[in-house]
Every structure is written in structure tokens, then in C-alpha cells.
Specification:
The protein is built from eleven helices and 17 strands. It is of the alpha/beta class and 390 residues long. It folds into two domains: 95 residues, Urease, subunit C, domain 1; 280 residues, TIM Barrel. Strand 11, helix 4 and strand 12 form a beta-alpha-beta unit. Helix 3 runs parallel beside helix 4. The chain is globular and about 65 Å long. Bound molecules: zinc ion.
């Protein structure tokens, strides 16, 4: 996977230590073979004097088999086509992810058949695409949000059986919809603990105070779309190490007219409520140091993987130091997905996934918008270096 390369003159964003330093990077067979060692014989030498290298990003919330694009002003939020089409969409969407410097994606829900077909493609090893962690079909309330592509409990299929089957299908996460329609708190707690018992991690979709409170109390691994303001709940979330994926840029872009004019008034009212609630929770949530991890909601119209850096910029505008934003976007997210051994930082033995920029990303994440070079598993997937590329 890619030749032996030696990248010289870089400033590395060390997200593990939380600092930047000068280092050279040697890449071999797609992995980082050495840091700050002399170039091996036969290595291609790449002079990147004064450039910056950031570890590639992790997207905590996407729907890779969905179609997020707007055609002629009309929204196509498609999830109901033949599985083969869903799989091709996953390839298309993940190609965009790669171009945006994303190396690892958690899919937050899609049709089982589509995801299985997508995984067959990715599993061939012929496609150079970000690694994918999946949540399968979300567990929904009867007729609740997400029901059109979700799964349900029934008298013949209780939670114990559902989570066993879900885990056996190769999913690592169970997504549980808890809003606008809510589970009773004890029901949600039972679902979450059954999932954990089956070895699954849990992502609870919640954007109202009641929904988020129940998610935190149930012990959800991550809360999707929500943040918390209530001091008692903040303390509980801290104790349980709950992580939050606010998908904040998504909540902003979803209120732009080019999308809202395609939506029924009832849906726009929900989007408007969500945006305002998130905005209200944000100051106490961040002041107390609760984690926020970036997620685009790519695939769920109108969001795409092109929004990733916008999510980082949003976190930064909230007053979070850019280096902390980058640690959340890389190592902390990779840890949360159980992938930190190979992803999330520029360290020996990990995949050579890095984003090279002319400007310092720790001075402002906008520096990451148009990278000079993106390496994924050692291959240049974005490259505007021109003559500097050997
Ligand atoms: Zn979503």
C-alpha cells in the first residue's frame, strides 16, 4: 500500500500529548514506520518545510447509504432503493469523506441490507475508503422518528433477542431513537443495558431535555444531537463518561431556506426547536468540560461530509481552543470507537492518515479547509503539492 516515503520539515499536531512539535514522518506499507529518524535508503523524500500535519478526522455521525443531495431545489432523502444502490451511495459518500480528510466513520443508522452490501464492497479491499463502524437499523418507537428505516420491538422479538441478532449482524453500536417520541425511562434503561450486555455500544438520538436526561441516566455511550445544561445531569454525564455528538453545523444548515422550503411546517418547527435548545445548553455544557465530538450527519439531507471542517469551526467559535477541537476530532473520537490502536494520531505503528496544510491548524481550524495533501493509509488522496510531490 504505497511506496516508502519520508516527509520532512513538518510541524506535527500531537493530539495525544496536546502539543505541536517538529518531526519527520516515515511511511511504509501505509503505516507510520518512524518519527524523526533519518530517511531510509530508497525512500521518496518529500520536502514539506513549514507545513503542518494533523491526524485525519473521525466522523462520529453519518448515514453513508443515504442520498444527501438536493437536486433542482428538491430534497432526495432516499433510503428505500435496492440495496446495491445504497451500497454505491456509501462508496460515493465515503469518497467525499476521504477528500475531506476523514479516515474513520461511524454510520449512525441505515437499512440492514444496504449496509451489508456496502460492507461487502469495503471488505473486498479493492477500494481505498475510510474505515466504517456501523449501528445498523435504529431501534424506534412504534411509528416513531426513523421508523421508515428502523427496527422495532414486538411480542415475538423482545429486546434480548433483538440485541443478540443486531450484534451477530456485525454492528458494534445500537442506535436508539428517543425523540420526539420518547421511551419510558425504565424502558430506555433496559434497552441500553441489554445492548451493553450483548457487547454493543449505544448511541441515543435525543434533542429534548427529557430525551437527553433519560439517555444520560440510562448510561448511553453517546448522546446524538443533544447537550446538557442542568448541573445535576452534567455531573451524572461526567461520572458516566457520556460523550456528546451535537451535530451542531447540521442543526444550523438544516434551517437554511434551501432546505426548509422542502420540508413540512411540523418538521421545520422541530428543527427550529432543536437549534435553539442546543444553543441554550451549549455554554453550561462546555463550561463544565463535557466532551463534544464532531459528527456531520452526512447522508441525512442537507448534510454531507463536506461539512466536517464547518463543525470544527463551530466548536472553535464556541470558545474551545483549536488544539482541543482537534483532539476531539481525532484521538478522542477514535478512542470512543475503539479504534485508537490504528487511528486518531500520528504515531509509529498507526495508519499513515494525515492532513498536511500550509497554515497552522492549532491557530485556527479554517487552516484545514483546503489541505495541500491528504494521506490515507499512506496514499495521497488529495494532493495540490505540484512540483513538491516526488
Ligand atoms: Zn443522523
Amino acid at each position: 500500500m504505497g511506496p516508502l516515503r519520508h516527509l520532512r520539515g513538518l510541524n506535527i499536531v500531537d493530539v495525544v500529548q496536546g502539543e505541536t512539535r517538529k518531526a519527520s514522518v516515515t511511511v511504509s506499507s501505509g503505516r507510520i514506520a518512524a518519527l524523526d529518524e533519518p530517511p531510509p535508503e530508497n525512500a521518496e523524500i518529500l520536502d514539506l518545510d513549514g507545513c503542518w500535519a494533523t491526524p485525519s478526522f473521525v466522523d462520529m455521525h453519518a448515514h453513508v447509504t443515504f442520498e444527501p443531495r438536493i437536486h433542482d431545489g428538491a430534497i432526495t432523502f432516499a433510503f428505500d432503493e435496492p440495496a446495491e444502490l445504497g451500497a454505491l451511495r456509501a462508496v460515493q459518500n465515503l469518497t467525499e469523506a476521504l477528500r475531506n480528510g476523514i479516515c474513520l466513520v461511524r454510520d449512525a443508522g441505515g437499512r440492514q441490507s444496504h449496509l451489508a452490501a456496502a460492507k461487502r464492497y469495503l471488505g473486498t479491499g479493492h477500494l481505498l475508503l475510510p474505515d466504517l463502524v456501523t449501528s445498523g437499523e435504529p431501534l424506534c418507537r412504534p411509528d416513531g422518528h426513523g421508523s421508515v428505516f428502523g427496527q422495532h420491538l414486538s411480542p415475538s422479538r423482545g429486546i434480548g433477542q433483538l440485541v443478540e441478532e443486531h450484534a451477530a449482524s456485525g454492528h458494534e453500536w445500537l442506535k436508539i431513537m428517543n425523540g420526539p417520541e420518547l421511551w419510558h425511562e425504565p424502558e430506555l434503561a433496559e434497552i441500553v443495558s441489554s445492548a451493553h450486555h450483548a457487547g454493543l455500544l449505544t448511541a441515543v438520538h435525543a434533542f429534548t431535555p427529557e430525551g437527553i436526561r433519560a439517555a444520560v441516566r440510562a448510561g448511553a455511550t453517546t448522546v446524538e444531537h443533544g447537550m446538557v445544561a442542568d448541573p445535576e445531569l452534567i455531573a451524572e454525564a461526567k461520572e458516566r463518561s457520556t460523550a456528546f455528538v451535537p451535530t451542531a453545523y447540521c442543526s444550523w444548515i438544516s434551517l437554511r431556506p434551501r432546505f426548509t422550503r422542502t420540508q413540512p411546517t411540523s418538521e421545520v418547527a422541530i428543527l427550529d426547536y432543536w437549534y435553539r435548545y442546543l444553543d441554550e445548553c451549549r455554554p453550561p455544557h462546555l463550561a463544565d468540560g463535557l466532551p463534544v465530538l464532531p459528527g456531520t450527519d452526512a447522508g441525512c439531507a442537507p448534510c454531507t461530509f463536506d461539512d466536517y471542517v464547518d463543525e470544527l469551526i463551530r466548536f472553535e467559535r464556541w470558545g474551545t481552543d483549536p488544539l482541543e477541537v482537534l483532539r476531539n476530532a481525532t484521538i478522542r473520537a477514535a478512542q470512543r470507537l475503539g479504534r485508537a490502536e490504528l487511528f486518531g494520531s500520528i504515531d509509529v505503528g498507526k495508519w499513515a492518515n494525515l492532513i498536511v496544510t500550509e497554515r497552522d491548524p492549532t491557530a485556527g481550524t479554517t487552516a484545514l479547509r483546503h489541505p495541500a495533501l491528504v494521506l490515507y493509509k499512506g496514499s495521497g488522496v488529495v494532493n495540490t503539492l505540484g512540483e513538491r510531490w516526488p
